[in-house]
TrEMBL record, chains A, B:
GO biological process: regulation of DNA-templated transcription
InterPro entries: Class_I_gatase-like, DJ-1/PfpI, INH-QAR
Domain spans labelled DJ-1/PfpI: 15-164
Descriptive protein name: DJ-1/PfpI family protein
């Protein structure tokens, strides 16, 4: 499978924003920034330092107004997704890029940002398992798959699923051989020490604790999705 | 398994440096920065922006001279490891911290930095598969395991193995329950799209291409290990 000519230079961009979950961005960056014949842009409204949910400081290299038309746009999530999904400047940037991008790629609750931007209507999509039931408010059909491809919209589930999705995207862009080389470089032959990586596999005890911890942000996400959904539907039509 | 009292506040630090491989740091950060009752310090010689091998810009929050005695020190790798392993200021910081840290945790070729700092003598260790044969020059016994625990020195193999190791470390520090909660939050239930994540699993073709790409840095690593090894042995004694 290889849809893009190798000689076409690919412009790949990833959003960063305050209170993001850094791993939603940095996991995919590892693969996407190494795609042959490509340039990676780290994007935000300005070029000031951005702090993730746990304080990691990342610096954008390209402001929205400097960005070229991208072939791939990566949209990560994290608690700060709530503010971004209410920010018309960011939503307009995403919508504008999405019109001609080969792929928009959301990781984790980046899907809810894409939902607020009107990109999810009529699409299959996934997101972090705590937020999966929010997707229908944006007109999407939720999927339990770890990575979902629906035309030019690709979504990955929670946090580390962004790594799986980025290798799939590498294969879509440059073929399986390139993705396999990236996987070997990244030594992506995972051995999770426990079998606790999904709601179906975690113990009831672990699940109820992690779910309780996310309850407040989950309720917020439902509330804001109800507010944004109508606008998102208008945008989709 | 839980060795550290839950009420003991843990100080966890991670090095960043120019031309590092960001994922060696950011993968473990995702778990380690969420360990209950802990503070995470992002460390370098100064607080200027650091660019990873692919240009991602990270900012340290703590300079070496400001750092407290750490309970855990994370040492990532990447091509910039070569310069760091020759930098006496960094090596002295690592050696000094290692004396009283509960764990030194190297990811990828961070092991070679620890080797140059004299920490590997007589230890079992692992590193990125392209560099595994360099370890004996630093007095270490190489292991093919993805994560190796040898007393207070923990090492993970290439890049993404740092995620597995960080969950193991979370279990060592705070018990299995905490690690399982982190794994569920991170949705770490990996589904690599190909079976190409280790030299044993990759095709000959993929392996020879990725190995050839790393040949120059591998040769450099052997050459510098030969230069640093004697000093490292002296430091170890």
């Amino acid at each position: 499978m290889q849809t893009i000519p190798a000689e076409k230079h690919l412009k790949i961009g990833g959003l960063i924003f305050p209170n993001m979950d850094q791993c939603d961005f940095t996991g995919p960056f590892e693969a996407l920034s190494r795609i042959p014949n490509s340039t990676f842009y780290t994007l935000w409204k300005d070029k000031e330092v951005v702090r993730d949910m746990r304080g990691m400081q990342l610096v954008p290299d390209t402001a929205f107004h400097e960005a070229p038309q991208l072939d791939v746009l990566l949209v990560p999530g994290g608690y700060g997704q709530e503010e971004v999904a209410a920010d018309e400047e960011v939503l307009a940037f995403i919508r504008d890029q999405a019109k001609r991008a080969l792929y928009v790629y959301s990781v984790c609750t980046g899907a809810l940002i894409c939902g607020a931007a009107g990109l999810l209507h009529g699409r299959y999509a996934t997101t972090h398992w705590t937020a999966i039931d929010v997707l229908p408010l944006y007109g999407a059909t939720p999927s339990d798959d770890r990575v979902v491809i629906d035309g030019n919209y690709v979504s990955a589930g929670g946090v580390t699923s962004g790594i799986d999705g980025s290798l799939i995207l590498a294969a879509l862009l440059r073929g399986d051989q390139v993705a396999k080389e990236l996987q070997l470089y990244m030594a992506y032959d995972p051995e999770p020490p426990f079998d606790s990586g999904s709601p179906a596999k975690a113990s009831d005890n672990v699940l109820s604790i992690v779910r309780a911890r996310a309850q407040q942000i989950t309720e917020q996400r439902f509330a804001s999705a109800r507010r944004y959904a109508e606008r998102a539907m208008d945008l989709a039509n």
